[in-house]
Amino acid sequence: MTEGPVPPGADDPGEPAASPYEPVELSGQDGVGAPDPFLRLWTPHRMAYIAGENKPTSTEAGSGCPFCRIPGLSDADGLIAARAGAAYAVLNLYPYNPGHLMVVPYRHVADYTELTRAEVDDVAKLTQQAMRAVRIVSAAHGFNIGMNQGEIAGAGIAAHLHQHVVPRWGGDTNFMPVVAQTKVLPQLLSDTRALLAKSWPTD
């Protein structure tokens, strides 16, 4: 027998046996089925929305309504950017664009015509402040602002009124949402909330 070092995986029990397979480098396509030319950006937060996560099963006020429950959390846990006397501004958990906020009265009320003068004033004031804060943080080019009144009009939670403040930028409606039906969000919601709260105007 020839003296000398034993090749790894041969007769040396201290070394693992050599694999008969060539090493394979994983890619973004692994596990998605038949190979095709497309890369995939996964947006599981949208599936949670589609599946109805956090959607109340009742129209009643209370802990079953997320907009009633959120004000009882800390600002960080509830993703609240700012509070006023009769309403608050909170990040949308399933945003259409980065910085998508909602302005919500504390009171569980469905219809805009049912708001008190103080609630109308605070919803309007917080909407203005939300626009200013988003412009400071991310230089939004424009906004979509509005509320869907009733399920037939597209309100996800129709029983508790909420006004959307959606920042817009030139080119934000590109091939991703139009063709791929995918929205890419480059920042965690908690980080967005912290930036907006820090830059929220007081007037």
- The strand count comes to 5
Q: What is the approximate shape?
A: globular
- Residues in helices, as a percent range: 25-40%
Number of helices: 6
Query: Which structural class should the secondary elements be placed in?
Result: alpha+beta
Detailed description of the structure:
Residues 1-10 have a biased composition (Pro residues). Substrate binds at residues 92, 164. This protein has 203 residues and is an alpha+beta fold. It has a domain at 72-199: HIT-like (HIT family, subunit A, 2-Layer Sandwich), CATH 3.30.428.10. It has helices at 44-50, 66-69, 75-78, 117-138, 175-179, 189-199; strands spanning 80-83, 87-91, 101-105, 142-146, 163-168. A five-stranded antiparallel β-sheet has the order 1-2-3-5-4. Helix 4 crosses helix 6. The mean pLDDT is 78.
